[in-house]
Amino acid sequence: MTEVQERSGAPHTLPDHDRSAVTPTMPRKPIFGLRTPVGRPQRVTSAVAVWALFFGVWMLASASGLVNELLVPAPQQVFATTWDLFAHRGFGSDVLISIGRVVVAFAMACAVAIPLGVMMGSFPAVEAFFNPFVSAWRYLPAPSFIPILLMWFGTGEAPKLALLFIGVIFFLITLIMDHTKNVREELVETALTLGAKRATVVRKVIFPAVLPDVVVAMRQMLAMAWTYLVIAEIVASTTGIGAMMMRARRFLKTDEILAGIIVIGALGLLFDLLFALIYRWAFPYLRTQR
Amino acid sequence: MSGGQSALGVRHVSKSFDLGKGRTVEAVRDVTFDVEGNSICVLLGPSGCGKSTVLRMMAGLETPTSGEIAIGGRHVDGPGRDRGMVFQAYTSFDWLSVRSNVEFGMKINGVPAAERRERAERFIQLVGLGKFADAYPSQLSGGMRQRVAIARTLANGPEVLLMDEPFGALDAETRWLMQELMIDVAEKTDTTMVIVTHDLEEAIFLADKIVFLSSHPGRVKKEIVPTFKSGRVADKEQLVRLSGYSDLEGELMHMMREEGRGHE
Ligand SMILES: Nc1ncnc2c1ncn2[C@@H]1O[C@H](COP(=O)(O)OP(=O)(O)OP(=O)(O)O)[C@@H](O)[C@H]1O
Ligand SMILES: [Mg+2]
Fold first, then answer.
1. Residue A218 and residue A276: Cα distance in Å, rounded?
2. Is B60's Cβ below 8 Å from some Cβ in A?
């Protein structure tokens, strides 16, 4: 009851039915509850606060002259530069080129990794053949291929796509294979006792069962694809976000470098949200679980 | 299939599992029994005596080390749609609605869409899930999901329904309802059933015949026909009031104890 009076401001009495609707109030939750989930308002406030703090410190540091303005430009200047890059200097096409590279290379990697990973997870014979190969490649850092890729493919799009492809595919295959192995045996056996043949079990049971985990694995590996993209563009490219940042370095334009970083971060976040949306849309049956 | 005739024969079946490094474990030895058509056979026995192993061999999910299993005179060699199986663990296909789950077997077996829908509808009604036909399994309770699994298996029209502790994970009340449902299904669909359990009450209620397995390795200790029921009893309360019920329960309990003690 006290809660109601506090909220309504004045201690006037509410109509009876209203009162009964709000009466069973919970005791106020502590802000630092041990493993207690935080409510939406607290979550949003906290998220805004941490970024406000970050930019606040940055602005203060710049304004007070604590940091060298040439090396660390003020945040407002970085944002102004970001706008200027998009509006007047054709940065948009660099961004589109970068996005295009990630999407194409990642799609190619998925087109190979998903069928192969599911087959390896379903048939031990397929795993026995491919896994020794795949797990060895996983330990080779993709950037170590840059010199040879440049010699093989020159400076066009091919070496960048190849680097992204190599960097992502072996992890993706392994993740999908492991998730596929985790599909419960009872589901497979149920399908078999319903009269399904091997191919039907894979297509109609194992694949749909593992699909949500495949999407999660894709979401994780897409973040990695962005990392390799920037490496590729910094090392060997004249176009794309990374190349723009390397050009800016030559002219000591720290604000442009930081603008590039912000755009990369924003794009990463955007793609992550996109995957979260796809997940919600494609797997409505998971929403009500537990 | 007419009643009384053997629907399923288990002949001198033994099974050893390979544990690797040359070690094996003998799960069941020289098991022989028959399941009559349209009857309910209950496999009973202490934990680890090989009930699941026998059932899985009937389903074709394991191969006997020696001996033979035949259904309607045909040698069992791998799983097939003539023997439907319901597991203790939930096996609902979460990405499909209840209706699509129930249609699944018929769909992969090429049953035409119209017939599929009609049959699915009938079995969904039979297990009392009419209102939930379009729900996803994740929206259902454990007992309801198990009913989906039963409807899915029955709708596929198996000659034999194999169930491995299908109600083990359910609370007592839901378990009664499910047991009564199984009697109802047996009456209405003329399906031969083999049910594994270690619940004595469940065994007596469901069984036209109880096959009691002794443990390590599993062997048929005794076959018991609960004649005191004189046919099937539809209602569980009625069952425990029948004279003869507690005698049989006592006898089974004694056998369970004996088997258990043998290994201490
Ligand atoms: N895949 C397997 N590999 C090795 N040993 C196994 C395997 N399956 C079963 N066994 C062994 O066979 C014996 C019988 O097991 P089974 O699961 O058939 O018993 P059960 O009667 O179903 O027991 P419970 O009532 O606990 O389910 C056990 O000793 C078990 O350890
Ligand atoms: Mg078992």
1. 11
2. yes
